[in-house]
Structure formats: structure tokens, C-alpha cells
Design brief:
This protein is mostly helical. It has one domain (about 10-190). The protein is built from eight helices and no strands. The protein has helices spanning about 1-20, 20-65, 70-90, 110-115, 120-130, 140-165, 175-190, 190-200. α2 crosses α4, α2 crosses α5 (about 120-130) and α2 runs antiparallel to α6 (about 140-165). The termini are far apart. About 40% of the residues are buried.
């Protein structure tokens, strides 16, 4: 049974990890502004932090939201506000020479902690456990964590490499500022799946 779940789980892990989201957009911006080497702690924090999140969700953390729905709404609201603040930080990551810059790459702990306010990470973790570890057995939860650990880190790292390659294009202050504001706008746009239910009137 576990073997039968391997390829569907691996496919889900790859698609959900490689597609755009807050982690990948932030890593791309970090790669463009700070380079691959300085972004390694950020990448490791994303990969290992998400695996830790999956394990805790599988161990029963998600049941807290089932029992107290208001706690999930509070988390979602806090996540949106925090991501809006991060979007502003990205936009200011590399100000023109002589202007104030707020730029510095995420540390390992910051990136790991960010998973807990990342709406996409929550969706990925809950969906993975629900679909591929429905019995909440230790073996099934460990398999989900192992597969995501093997796939998520290389996937998100590719976005850092893409950002690093952008350095060849970002050869002037105005191009770098335009890039950072674009990435900030995309990060805000990635919040739409979280915000949309609040804006949709009940039927």
C-alpha cells in the first residue's frame, strides 16, 4: 500500500513544491539580490522547516483547527499581514545607491519559522497528510515527510538559481528596483487564494 502511494505522493510533492508561491518567489528575489551562496540558509530553512511542519501536522496539530476554527482564521489573517510586510521588505531589498536599503537574506530559523505563516505551506501539509497518510500512522507520516524532504529542497533551490541568473540582467539600479517591486507584487498576488474566501459573499 505504501509503495502504491509513492509515485502519486512524489508527483504531488514535486508539483506543489516547484510551482510559484511565497517561498519560491522570496527565494528567487533573494537569489537575484544576494546570490546563491548567501541564500543557502534560507533554502535549508524552507526545506527542513516544511518537513518539520508536515510531521507535526501529521501528528495531530491540524486537529486544533478542527476544534477551534477561529484559530485558523486568526492564523490566516496574521499570515496575510506578515506577507504584506515581507512584500514591502522585498521591494526595498536593493534601493538605488545612496538610498536606504532594508535588504538582507533570511536566516535558517527565519525561513523555517516562516512556514508557519505561509498559507501555501499549510495547504500543502494538510493536503499531503489528508490524502497520503489518512490513518495517521507513523510510517505513513514519515513517508510523507521523507518524500517532501527529498523533493522540496531541490525544487525550491531551482528558484534561487533562477534568481541568481537574473543578476546578468539586473545590471542597473532601475532594473533591480523594478524587479524587486515586481516580485513584491507577485508575492501579494499569491495571497489571493487565502483572501478570496473572505471577499466572496455567502450563498
Amino acid at each position: 500500500m505504501m509503495f502504491e502511494l509513492f509515485w502519486p505522493l512524489a508527483s504531488f510533492a514535486f508539483v506543489s513544491s516547484i510551482t510559484p508561491g511565497p517561498n519560491n518567489l522570496m527565494l528567487m528575489a533573494s537569489g537575484a539580490n544576494f546570490g546563491f551562496r548567501r541564500t543557502i540558509p534560507h533554502m535549508l530553512g524552507v526545506g527542513l522547516g516544511f518537513v518539520f511542519m508536515v510531521l507535526l501536522v501529521g501528528a495531530g496539530l491540524v486537529q486544533v483547527f478542527d476544534r477551534f476554527p477561529a484559530s485558523y482564521a486568526a492564523l490566516a489573517a496574521g499570515s496575510v499581514l506578515y506577507l504584506l510586510w515581507l512584500a514591502w521588505k522585498i521591494a526595498r531589498a536593493a534601493a538605488p545607491e545612496g538610498a536606504e536599503s532594508d535588504g538582507r537574506p533570511f536566516t535558517f530559523l527565519q525561513a523555517a519559522a516562516f512556514q508557519w505563516v505561509n498559507p501555501k505551506a499549510w495547504t500543502m501539509a494538510v493536503t499531503a497528510i489528508t490524502l497520503y497518510a489518512p490513518d495517521r500512522s507513523l510510517a505513513a507520516i514519515a513517508l510523507v515527510g521523507l518524500i517532501f524532504g527529498a523533493i522540496n529542497l531541490p525544487s525550491v533551490s531551482s528558484w534561487t538559481l533562477l534568481g541568481q541568473q537574473m543578476q546578468r540582467v539586473l545590471t542597473s539600479d532601475w532594473r533591480r528596483v523594478a524587479f524587486n517591486w515586481t516580485m513584491a507584487a507577485l508575492l501579494v498576488a499569491s495571497l489571493w487564494p487565502t483572501v478570496a474566501p473572505w471577499l466572496t459573499p455567502p450563498s
